[in-house]
User: Fold these one by one.
Assistant:
Number 1:
Amino acid sequence: MLSRRAFFFSAVATSAATTLARLPAEAGANAETSNAPQTILRLERRALEVNGKPASVFAISQPDGATGLVTRSGARFRVRVENGIGEPSLIHWHGLTPPWQQDGVPGVSGPPIPAGESADYDFPLRFGGTFWMHSHQGLQEQLLIAAPLIIHDQRDRPDEQEVVLMLADFTFTPPEEVFAALRKGSKMPMAGAPSNGSAGMEGSKSAGMTMAAAKPDLNDVKYDAFLANRRTLGDPEVVKIEPGGCVLLRIINSSSMSAFHIDLGELDGELIAVDGFEIAPVTGKRFPIAVAQRLDIRLAIPSGAATYPVLAVLEGENKQTGIVLHAGNAAIARIPDTAALASPALTLDLERRLRAAAPLEPRKADRRHTLNLTGNMASYVWSLNNVAWTKETPPLPVAQGERVELLFVNQTPMPHPMHLHGHEFQVVEINDQRFSGAVRDTVLVPPGHRVVVAFDANNPGLWALHCHLLYHLEAGMFTTLRYV
Ligand SMILES: [Cu+2]
């Protein structure tokens, strides 16, 4: 079935032998040899029942059925992806810092893996945390071609039970039809689109501040279900935990378009990392999570038998999904898929409070790029600096060794979770207020807001920088950054 292998180690490598010979030198002191065992990840079709109806989706699984990958910091990421979905695909390792040719963005990092073929990956893992993997090909992500990528490190406690909670949005409508309907401005698959907001934008092709003045527009796709580890609250995953024990929740928002507030119910959680990177801990019961972001939350479970639902309530609505933590032999009550109270729109109130445990070294920026987040809701064109990306769009220039700042200015009425590939960045400014915020890889920029992130240009190549809302990305809210 696998007729040929594609190698993405090096743009100049012409055979496996030359490629492998290069690796030890590239890998640096902390590397193991590239004889480390290779993990097979298969891209597969998978039947899934949602709300009692059958659906055909995708999955990323190991031969033994395990979903995604669990590894450890300091090991090599040595993976073969086998494409068994019958169409081209390519997997992005969200939040990792591979050589750029292994970053998994079709047309930027390399070609997609043809149906029936495979690609090999091999690079050192510099840090641990909660990451994830997903297809960056077309609209495949909407069909759940995503999985956790957990990298253990010295922060993990032996007495702590790890629980992964991966969120997703689901529709029975094929993603191409969802996108076509958005483009036509059809209200059919669009939820509660505020008609006053849309009307205000008619004809404002150049977007600009008129859009920012419009009413915030949150969920423009109407989903059939919201999933937690691929299940709804009609039949949620129930995770056995120890009364009096310690749980580390690793929450991944793999949704295509949907942001949530995590609701821990009666438990207090200690948020210890965002997007894999440690922060000064923040205690709370409700935490916002934008598309593509991750939250690591420590829970101290009270002694005694009880159930603890961990819920995610859709931004701007009361739809919810989640899992149930089950301590002892308490009875498990049915949880409705609507919350008593609607979740508000996500804000940056928490982001402003986050402080990186290991901030970037203080340094003046050598270069700052301003990225106006622009678009036209009526025709569903999304862009950066009014350019909807094409392969002809010139990359943003950066030079190796520079401290670079990116200023995101959201001139649209929708929030945009902005993601930079191949680098971790630090949030250093919100609405002109400087602070030493979280190190992470995806930051939310709400309507009308100005957010600055800083990063060190230490991983040369051609890198994607984009809004992580799938249909915004597809419509052109994407660019690249290049340095060698
Ligand atoms: Cu967007």
Number 2:
Amino acid sequence: MKKKMIAVLLACTMLVSTGCSATVAMDENGKITVDGVAIEDLAKDFGVNLGGQEDTKEDTQEADEEERDDDEELKTEGGSPWIDSDLKNNIKEDMELSATDDFHLYTNHDWLLKSEIKEGKRSESSFSEVKDKTDEKALALLNDDTLTSHDAQLVQALYNAILDWDARDKAGIDPIKGKIEDIQGISSLDELSDFICDTDRSRFASTLILCGNVVSFDDAEQYITAVVTDGLILEDASEYSKRTEMGDRYYKAYLNLAKAILTRLDYSESEVEEMFEDAISFEGKIAEKLLTSADKMSPDYIDKINNVYDPDEFFELAGSYPLKKYIEGCKYDNAKQYLVTEPEAIKRIDELYTEENLETIKNRMIIRCVTNMASDLDSEAYDAYIEAYNMANGSKGREEDEKVAFNTVRSLLSVPMDRLYIEKYDSTEKKKQITKICEDVIDVYREMLADEDWLSDETKEKAVEKLDSITINAVYPEKWVDYSDLDIDGLPLSDAYTRIHEFLEDIDRSHTNGKVDNEIWDMDILEPNAYYDSQNNSINLILGLLEEPFYYDGISEEALLGGVGAVIGHEISHAFDTSGAQYDKDGNYVNWWTEDDYNAFKERADKLIKFYDGITVWEGANVQGNSIQGEAIADLAGIKAMLKIAEGTKDFDYDKFFTAYATIWRRLNTRETDYYCLMQDTHPLSYLRTNVTLQQFDEFLDTYDIREGDNMYLAPEDRILVW
Ligand SMILES: [Zn+2]
């Protein structure tokens, strides 16, 4: 599971360049998840805490909005050719609605008008609705004391410990106090090294460097031990050279959180301010050597991070930082090779690891301890965490404790939770149906690929080979990791967390130098999500997505294809886009496109980028076409594939189909979240996923009699279909 922690850092960057092959997501709480794991809960060792991350969830979306007292100055108006209907400020009761002018608003107006972003959330969307339904079913299991299996005991023990506010309040901030005193007591660089290398002591603090196993880029059957830096408080390296509105918000939010916790440990506010600024300026020096979000968009991103070292060579990267001792402490020193994503950053950390910087490094560790642990302490600390979270994300209030507890259970104990859920709620029918749709979409892709006249025969042949090798992971797996050795019964929350982390870290260590078992899905299947995994060439459409409006009893074929079908179509296209072109049919990082094919694709993508660049979201803010190209192309391919299926379906009701598609993208964001998505997310904003995607197709224009002069109209020569 440490793998997932590492995956967070890798994926936070990877997913940008690989489209959405990495499953980094923003869950309903605004927590970042990777493979369904909330990093806040799982990767405490990290420090990325308040969420604020985007929403790279495969195709999932969230956000929030609402009249906020303090956002008068945040612009929401002036969008062109459509208003940004992901923002509630822009939704009025008496708007003129027309399918020919703004199909997204026309379809979703009632929902957008009546929906509110729930307390503690950044957004409300069809995905959050789906999640609410799953939550309800799961909570019934967590509260059912007649369940006696080991899985039930595990998840209920953690759930109850999280909700045991009496015990948490009694413990107060002792769990963090001990850590901080330990750090305070360090009086030399040697002692600091002892601390870092003792993983029991440094867990949840900040060790500057982290390691764990990931799937090798060069050999997708093989694990490799990855070494990464431990993340930044302001998240994106570019925030340290040119601070944006987002960076400012995070700075303020984390600083307030640090003050709230540390003043309870007798630090004065001004001391905390100094420590915080010290930590930020230290990170700024590391950030100079880290890749920024923009770097991660670059096509050669994997080349940049795929730096494989033999052990001797690897340990030479650092002389003062105790790299070897740390890797030994983490028990990854038996690795045959190491994947170092940003070697220059490791060297920079080594340069900065001096007696002179001792207090600065300690300050940063203390700040990171706070940001990593605050949400799991007593109610006073939790309130401060919520306040900071809301400040960072523009949300208000707080989510129900039970749901928060379930999210943590799901992220830390996904296997027992998922298994319990599957046993209770039979999903064999769903599995059959989804498998069949995946197979149908794969068949349609075979035709689509054959029809592409800009693709060479050589590349087409390889594409079909890859298509035929796709593994369909539908709904739930048949094989699970064994959790029978884990027991947390009766432990207070902080000890339960430690025990679970140790258990998950042991699992990860057992993968060192080992083979990848693709029958075990490395994901939380209750996440409302779907994705293509380029490292094992699999399409994943999991149980958590299969609630209304995506799936319900008696759903029509049109609605199924407009929702789940379009998502599957979208995902499969990632096997064949510029990112998919870099991975062969077995998931190895090997480019199988000819240069001419790549250039032809790029030319088509450039037209799309330009088109999206021309869309104004609100006054002064345009879409960043380059960032969202991969996902926008996938949306188009998804609809194209579905329309091919429709062609062969008797009496296909196109209105139902397009309406279902617009419905899955209904969403409200807070203005802050909207900005984040606009700047950082690789997916277009939701209203654009509906409008821009659909206006490319004659079937759509014909269904609603859309003509030249209508806002939804797009002349054939201006269309941006890539596939
Ligand atoms: Zn995608």
